Amino acid sequence: MSDILKDLSLLLHPVGIGWMALIASAILCLRRRRALGAFVCSLAALALWILAQPPLVLPVYGTLEEPWIHSTVEQAPNADAIIVLGGGWRTSVHDFRRVDFMESMDRFFTGCELGRLGKAPVLVLGGDPVTHGTNQPPDSEGLHRWLQDWGLASLEVVSLGPVKTTRDEALAAGELVRKRGWKKVLLVTSAFHMRRALATFTKEAVPVHPVACDFKFLRGDETTQKWHWAPSEEDLFQLGLWWHEQVGWFVYRLLGRA
Q1: Same domain, 39 and 83
Q2: Is 167 contained in some domain?
Q3: Distances from the Cα of 225 to the Cαs of 11, 40, 220, 242, 245, in angstroms?
Q4: pTM for the complete prediction?
Q5: Domain annotation covers residue 130
Q6: Are 226 and 54 in contact (CB under 8 A)?
Q7: Would you say 179 and 160 are in contact if contact means Cβ atoms under 8 Å apart?
Q8: What does residue 136 show for φ and ψ, rounded to 5 degrees?
Q9: How far is CA 180 from CA 61, 83, 122, 176, in A?
Q10: N or C: which end of the chain has fewer CB within 10 A?
Q11: Using one digit for the tens of pLDDT, what is the confidence trace for 78-88?
């Protein structure tokens, strides 16, 4: 019963509402003998359903994760520093330490775990946004103070400074690596993002070893691949992440950034 109710709830999400609107439009066009309109609406409804089904979307998404299943915390070597890319947190004036933990916060905790295991003595945080005309402290400062207050600050914590993109993080990391004389750093980011991140950091001559985390498909949970009779907003979002990485990879290669 709970599974049925969960599936029914999909219709209350924006994607579900849009899907039902397309079906209703197709039926209305048929009743008014507008074959072309009915065909277009039906095709759009079918496409939306296909693009939001876990068994179809997640294996495609998994192609980004599969190369990194052996590049995790357990296989990480010792290094001079741990670089954690941003994307797992953001400024929030109402949350503690003024930081909102997001879905990709696995990156931060993976970096902390590497430090706890003694893989490197320095934790480098990316992801601080470029701000103008604000007195808000950077996100990395809030995370650093959180580590201190919870008694987890055995590491030196360094920020890459204000950045907008993965390439900005790579440029800042390159300067820091050369300044510190580091020979090897552990690069921590989501598995789906690792290909582009690794290529970008390598392009900037940063000696990185990949440590992937935040696996969304290859996590050993087959229940995530169940078919839904209505389109799933969550899986459409996963497809969007896959598409974002494909476009980002193409643009970075075209501009010589990866």
Answers
A1: no
A2: yes
A3: 19, 28, 11, 16, 21
A4: 0.87
A5: yes
A6: yes
A7: no
A8: -70, 135
A9: 37, 14, 11, 6
A10: N
A11: 999 999 999 88
